[in-house]
TrEMBL record:
One of the GO BP terms on file: DNA-templated transcription
Cited Gene3D superfamilies: Periplasmic binding protein-like II (3.40.190.10), Winged helix-like DNA-binding domain superfamily/Winged helix DNA-binding domain (1.10.10.10)
Keywords: DNA-binding, Transcription, Transcription regulation
One GO MF term attached to the UniProt entry: sequence-specific DNA binding
Pfam families with a match to the protein in the record: HTH_1, LysR_substrate
Organism encoding this protein: Comamonas testosteroni
Domain HTH lysR-type, residue spans: 18-75
InterPro entries, per database record: LysR-type_TF_proteobact-type, LysR_HTH_N, LysR_subst-bd, WH-like_DNA-bd_sf, WH_DNA-bd_sf
Family: Belongs to the LysR transcriptional regulatory family.
Protein's name according to its UniProt entry: LysR family transcriptional regulator
Length: 302
């Protein structure tokens, strides 16, 4: 190839490659589906986001987004795969270790939160960030069962964590639940006072005194009976008619929806505890950690 033909080929190739900022903006907008959030992530103005997308569409001669909700067109979806592959290749450096371009995020999560809240939503995250591999560990920090070397931790407690940075994910309300067969055998339950003498299932994660105080019931915290360090196990025990469980609405939803547990009263109380996402200082400098934190916070509050 002559020098002139080489220069001509280089010039044509360069003209066909869209500017990197257009590609980064397209990928972010396709993932976040919000001009404002894309602008915040890329530290540019919303108008710059719109301009870059229009510029990219003009270069490609195709529409990438079809509607106001920023859903992708068929061309946009196909091109997004190429863009992510290309951006992933640019992230890889010669001599890097195994699984080039992939990121691993170690997450420690409380058991029932993982099963009821996180797992049903996790596919949304893995589809948006296919290059991030999630390693999930069980953790019960309120009882000092901590996931080892986790990047991010979901804790359930009062939120006074001096050893880590944290954000509140969600609060909930609690109410007594029991199985239909237990209610038939021991009911009817018409007033909170009807709980006196009943087997109350216990957990340090959810003290009964919270609900007692909300109803004006003068009963001490139970110190006898079956005890559980996982709300899901306590729900299973209540479903098996072992007793009455004080359960948060969000975590008890699967049992209430399938009818294995039902509410005894129309009285709720705010839980004294909440779920928090926690991390050690500096962790959020890793983009995969900040991406997961942002996604989880939005998923919990949408």
């Amino acid at each position: 190839m002559t020098s002139s033909s080489h220069n001509a080929w280089t010039s044509v190739t360069a003209r066909r490659i869209p500017p990197i900022q257009c590609l980064l903006t397209f990928e972010a907008l396709a993932r976040l589906r919000s001009v404002t959030q894309t602008a915040e992530e890329l530290c540019v103005t919303p108008s710059a986001v719109s301009h870059r997308v229009k510029q990219l569409e003009q270069i490609l001669g195709a529409r990438l987004f079809g509607r106001a909700d920023f859903s992708l067109t068929t061309d946009g979806s196909a091109y997004l795969a190429h863009v992510r592959e290309g951006l992933g290749a640019l992230q890889r450096f010669p001599g890097a270790s195994a699984a080039p371009g992939r990121r691993r995020l170690k997450l420690a999560v409380t058991p029932t939160f993982a099963r009821v809240i996180l797992i049903p939503r996790l596919r949304q995250f893995t589809e948006a960030y296919p290059e991030i591999d999630i390693a999930l560990q069980v953790s019960i920090p309120l009882l000092d069962v901590i996931g080892e070397d986790a990047d991010l931790m979901v804790r359930f407690g009062a939120g006074h964590y001096a050893d880590v940075e944290h954000i509140e994910l969600a609060r909930d309300i609690v109410t007594p639940l029991a199985s239909p067969s237990f209610i038939r055998e021991h009911g009817p339950f018409e007033r909170p006072e009807d709980l006196e003498g009943m087997p109350l299932l216990r957990s340090p994660l959810e003290p009964w005194r919270t609900w007692f105080a909300a109803t004006g019931l003068d009963m001490p915290e139970p110190n006898e009976g079956s005890q559980f360090n996982d709300i899901g196990l306590m729900c299973d025990a209540a479903s098996a008619s072992m007793g009455i469980a004080l359960v948060r609405h969000k975590l008890g939803a699967p049992w209430m929806e399938n009818g294995t547990l039902v509410r005894l009263f129309d009285v709720d109380a705010p839980s004294p505890h909440a779920h928090y996402l926690c991390w050690k200082t500096g962790i959020m400098d890793r983009w995969e950690c900040s991406a997961f934190a942002e996604w989880l916070h939005k998923a919990m509050n949408s």
